[in-house]
Amino acid sequence: MKRIAILGRGAHTLPTYRALLNSLAAHYSITIYSEVAMTPDWLLLEHSYTIKSIPAGKYPRRIRDFLLLLLVLRDHLKNPFALLHAHSTYPTGLVAILLKTIFKIPVVVALDAAEGSAFPEINFGDLLSKRRAKLNQWVINKASFVTALTNFHRDQVYTNLKITNKISVIPRGVDPDKFSSVTTQKESGNITMLSISYLSPVKDPETLVKAFFLVQQSINCSLIHIGRDYMNNSIHQLVKEMGIEHKVFFKGHLTYEEIPEYYKKADLFLLTSVYESQAVVVAEALAAGIPVLGTHVGLMADLSGKCCITVPPGDYKALAENVLALLKDKERMSTLRENGYAWSRQNNLDTCVTALRNIYDSLIVSK
């Protein structure tokens, strides 16, 4: 098997990425390189590839970058890699391009986050730093092949950075069979809304709660939220202040295996992020046949109108109005459900694996 190095911890710790790599490992000898020391619980996650990480210790950022470079360099000199695949631009993309320059190894850079965006009001996005913006631009333009998760994601990078390299869009697909099994019997007369995201300013849970507050004034409904809390219980407090704590249920962090059961219970899926490169949870909701409403970012922006309904970020009034209108329009709800389900089947995990295999093989052959 051809040897491929995947650079970046996130490639292993994200469930959908791990599923992708496990599928790729059937065709290539894959080694994951982590820019931080892997914890025991991360190592226990099911995987069929080799994992290596820099030594444990509190190192300055530049030392960590150098250690990652040495780790990959050492292994390449012992047994050369046919290709390097970097998870985002820094530090993994930087290390990959340096090795490409020295050894002429083809490099795939997979854009995965806010490489081309900045939101100073919430201190989020790579472009808040001019140095990071220049580094991102250099890495992307030097890569052998660049991927983005959505058209929205790609266009942000093209618009805000001087990119001359082509960026291809490959959504991270999910296994539809994990989410499209028999639907659980729903509570009669109650509309269940589901949202999955960690609580943080970039996910804008205030807009979610405010929209739900307006909706619950008109219909019998409940909201389930799944995800870790990085806002010091402030959203829980907001719910209490609004007097809707009996209708909003915070489940906190759940394992990936536990989540499909909640998709089965939901009538609608809501996501109110300020920014998303994709939002894999949207792909999961579509695979589960749930109508999606949210902000015009990531996959929701790409599929707006056909598979989901979107509003500008922060516009909770418009979101509430669209929720109520959709619940009254059964024909449109059915159309969104059918279109979303079809998209999830056409852009599933196997589709993503095939796309990456085609890229890998073409770059290795032309090497």
UniProtKB/TrEMBL annotation:
Single GO molecular function: glycosyltransferase activity
Top-level EC class: transferase
Keywords carried by this UniProt record: Glycosyltransferase, Transferase
EC annotation from Swiss-Prot or TrEMBL: 2.4.-.-
Residues in Glycosyltransferase subfamily 4-like N-terminal domain copies: 20-178
Database matches in InterPro entries: Glyco_trans_1 (IPR001296), Glyco_trans_4-like_N (IPR028098), Glycosyltransferase_grp1 (IPR050194)
Domain annotation Glycosyl transferase family: ranges: 185-343
Coiled-coil segments on the chain, per record: none
PANTHER family: SULFOQUINOVOSYL TRANSFERASE SQD2
Name recorded for this polypeptide: Glycosyltransferase family 4 protein
Upper classification of the organism: Bacteria, Pseudomonadati, Bacteroidota, Cytophagia, Cytophagales
